[in-house]
Amino acid sequence: MSACAETLMAVRRQRLLRRYDVSAPRYTSYPTAAQFSPAVGPDTWTDWLRALPQDEPVGLYAHIPFCKRLCWYCGCNTRAVNRLDVMASYVDLLLKEAEMVAEALGRPLRPISLHLGGGTPNSLSPDLLSRLVSGLKQLFQPDEGLAFAAELDPAVLTSDWVDRAAELGLTRASLGVQDLSPEVQQAVNRIEPFEVVERAVGWLRRAGVPSVNLDLMYGLPRQGRAQVLSTLEQILTLRPDRIALFGYAHVPWMKPHQRLIDTAELPGASERFDQSQAAAELLVQAGYQAIGLDHFALPDDSLAVAARNGRVRRSFQGYTTDPATLIGLGASSISRAPQGYAQNHTVEREWRAAVAAARLPIARGIAMSANDRRRAEIIERLMCDFAVYLPAVERRHGLDPDRFATSMSALRPLIEDRLVIVDGGAVAVTDLGRPFVRLVCAAFDQAPMSAEPRHARAI
After folding, report:
1. Please, which residues have CB within 8 angstroms of residue 268's CB and are 6 or more apart in sequence?
2. Fewer CB under 10 Å: which end of the chain, C or N?
3. Among 68, 275, 64, 256, CA closest to 156
4. How does strand 113-118 pair with strand 79-80?
């Protein structure tokens, strides 16, 4: 590309960033959690559980809201806890919640996946981990070949924990790394040298855990392109099976501890964009397949294979091959049934009180209409495939194919800026438009955009 062409491209990019530097949902679900209400409660969730089809593939999610340390960038529902008795009582209550779910089902669930998230699941001792996983397996009788994943903090991981998890059938470990630059780590209160990550990966591989994934971030305070690429160059020496490259979401109105971050040290939209694009280019050059907005996988990884076959899903765990139906356990966890979403109490003490009183701890959710399901499929395919054929979606949901007028009007600026192409009923996000895909999805979102800050920046 000539110097003149590069200059024109840079000018165009700056114009797009100025125009589209707005907030938008991450679309890990549709409808989004911002639309949940108390209209969905324990009785609704019980009805949905009992109505699950016998042959419905189901996943389990267990939320562990404990960390040994509190990282300032964190957007998770968690708290710093080091007391074994607090964690032990939580595991006991989580299993009690699971018993209530099993009772409502009235039959074996036979999940095909189990995901431990948080927080930091490896905050649990090996014995507590065994109690939790063995208890869930006994209650729900999973199929052979259960996909068992856990999110881990390398700094508090031990070889004993890894060995126990491997004995319990751990198939995928996701290690939170974020950034390896000392100045960035100091700015977010997460000190973690490369050697710690390297040691954790070594333990997992020696224990025979089949898939090791690493989670990174861009857009952090004191972080520039050089820090992002330096981190990636070190991480690539470990050859993880998957890499997630998330944009930092600065939402201090939702996560008060993020106020400890100096906003003057946060990169702007142009810098964030440059970081994400430089990182994506390096990962593709290193042999990784780009998947959706922010995931990368080696070509033979199951996620990459699913992406090539159009079978990747979007969920609260990001891009996944897990089933659409998900049963969440623990404080703040979100379940999805064919009828809609149900979320547990997000405040841990409220969740504990409900379970202790033998009540399913559902606090809110949303029942999906046929129109919601139509929009959900459109948004999920755009997030996963960057393309969707609208008439086919309409036929599957038995709806009128002429419902696109409002969405087409919302897409018009994006079409004019060549971020998306609409040809008949086919909607395709261009290469230029991929970083803006959440705004393409927003055109199909029926919820009105709020002037109040509810979501992270779209770039």
Report:
1. none
2. N
3. 68
4. unpaired
Strands 325-329 and 58-64 turn out to be: parallel
pTM score over 0.70: yes
Give the whole-angstrom CA distance, residue 152 versus residue 334.
20
Q: What b/e sequence results for 197-214 when a residue is b if at least 16 CB atoms lie within 10 Å of its CB, and e otherwise?
A: beebbebbeebebebbbb
pLDDT for position 58:
95
Q: Both tokens of residue 378?
A: 């459109």
Q: Hey, which residues does 275 pair with through a beta bridge? A: none
305 φ/ψ angles, rounded to the nearest 5 degrees:
-60, -45
Burial class (CB in 10 A: 0-12, 13-18, 19+), 10: exposed
Over 90: is that where the pLDDT of 70 sits?
no
Cα–Cα distances in angstroms (integers) from residue 59 to residues 42, 110, 116, 286, 419, in the given order: 20, 9, 11, 32, 35
Whether residue 274 contacts residue 225, with contact meaning beta carbons closer than 8 Å, is answered with: yes
Report the candidate in 255, 232, 256, 260 with the shortest Cα–Cα distance to residue 244. Answer: 232
CA distance 329 to 35: 21
User: What is residue 452's predicted lDDT score, i.e. its pLDDT?
Assistant: 46
What's the CA gap between 280 and 434, in Å, rounded?
12
The residue length of the chain stands at 459
In the chain, the N- to C-terminal Cα span, in Å, equals 25
- Give tens-digit pLDDT for 399-448: 665 566 678 888 999 999 999 999 988 999 999 999 999 999 999 998 76
Coil/strand/helix, residue 297: strand
- Return the amino acid letter for 368: M
For residues 342 and 213, give the distance between their C-alpha atoms in angstroms, rounded to a whole number: 28
pLDDT number for residue 212: 98
Burial class (CB in 10 A: 0-12, 13-18, 19+), 237: exposed
Locate the DSSP E strands across 163-223.
172-178, 211-218
Nearest to 116 by CA among 59, 156, 74: 59
Query: What's the rounded Cα separation, in Å, for the pair 115 and 310?
Result: 22
- Burial of 349 from C-beta contacts in 10 A (0-12 / 13-18 / 19+): exposed
Region of 412 (left: φ > 0; alpha: ψ -120 to 50; beta: rest) is: alpha
